[in-house]
Amino acid sequence: MNTSDDYAILRDPEMKEIFDSFIVESREILEQLDLDLVDLEKYPDDLELLNKIFRAFHTVKGTSGFLGLSRLGSLTHIAEELLNKLRKGELKLNSDIMDGVLKAYDSMSELVNVIETQLNEDYNVDEAVAMLEKILSSQQDTVVEEKVETVPDTIESLDELPEAQFESVIMVEADDKGDDSDEDAIFVPEVPSGDKKTGKPSAKETKAENSIRVDVARLDDLLNIVSELVLGRNRLAQVYAEASLQYEGTQLVRDLADASRQIDLMTTE
User: Fold this and answer.
1) Which end of the chain is more exposed for a tag (fewer CB within 10 A), N or C?
2) By CB neighbour count within 10 A (0-12 exposed, 13-18 middle, 19+ buried), where does 178 fall?
3) Angstrom distance (rounded) from CA 135 to CA 257
4) How far apart are CA 158 and CA 179, in angstroms?
5) Is 185 helix (H, G, I), strand (E, B) or coil?
6) Phi, psi (deg, nearest 5) at residue 112
7) What is the C-alpha separation between 154 and 204, in angstroms, rounded?
8) What is d(CA 245, CA 234) in angstroms, rounded to the nearest whole number?
9) pLDDT of amino acid 25
10) Spatial CA neighbour of 167 closest among 50, 49, 47
11) How far apart are CA 31 and CA 15, in angstroms?
């Protein structure tokens, strides 16, 4: 059970700058999430949109852990887990899952309100967490049907596939290649070198040239690094605020201000 002492960090004057940044950033994330979730209901197969929503929950989770916000952390963690399965294709978005994601958003929004106004987590998220856990449990055996029934044995036969089928071949299950294979990796097949008649790159060749093979675990590591970068940016802003009071008007403070603005800009991007 949480006590007032669990949230002493939120009342610490030295943490005020970081806490205020957390609230501002969370508000911006919630505002954008509201729009993105409306779009997700219209375009449930939009992978880029799913990734964007996943990153939003992931960012809030990272900062909540730094500030000791356990309820917000547990809520965003389970929501992130569900969204991760969706974006990896392990689950297919349906009405039940959409209801769960919306419930997580509503609970997160209410909890952030309480954190901002009361400096604690006096808001029950158990119902939302239980709902998401139930969805994960009931959906874990769900298999997303593959549109392509067979994968051609030869690379040349890819040229005969319709565009939609060619795209679906991009994601394939790793075969038995020993310890070096990675079933989470993205495989991009080689394609014929251009149009046989004109010699110009085909549309499928161009698409393949713009794709790379990336380990999903590496992408998750990148997201974790970005979360740490946000915390570092907030800490830098706090150091600048303290230094500007003690060394006001010095070249050191001006240089620190420039560095802080540059890091803030890059982190925001």
Assistant:
1) N
2) exposed
3) 47
4) 28
5) strand
6) -65, -35
7) 16
8) 17
9) 92
10) 47
11) 24
Cβ-based neighbour number of residue 16 at 10 Å:
13
CA dihedral 69, 75, 77, 82 (to 10 degrees): -170
SS3 215: strand
Kindly give the parts of the chain with pLDDT less than 50: 143-192
3-state secondary structure of 199: coil
Contacts 24+ apart (CB under 8 A), 197-200: none
Report the amino acid identity of residue 180. Answer: D
Q: Which of 93, 105, 89, 133 is nearest to 36 (CA)?
A: 105
Q: Under a CB-based contact definition with an 8 Å cutoff, are residues 136 and 100 in contact? A: no
3-state secondary structure of 67: coil
Question: How high is the pLDDT of residue 133?
Answer: 94
Which residue bears the tokens 């001006």? 254
CA distance between the termini of the chain: 38
Task: Write down the pLDDT at residue 194.
Answer: 54
| pTM of the model as a whole | 0.55
The neighbour count for residue 240, using CB atoms within 10 Å, is: 19
Q: For residue 245, which amino acid is it?
A: L
Q: Which residue has the tokens 């978005």?
A: 93
Query: Torsions phi, psi of 23, nearest 5?
Result: -65, -45
Dihedral angle sign, alpha carbons of residues 46, 47, 50, 52: negative
Cα–Cα distance list, 52 to 4, 6, 21, 145, 215 (Å):
34, 31, 21, 24, 18
Q: Which two tokens stand for residue 19?
A: 């806490």
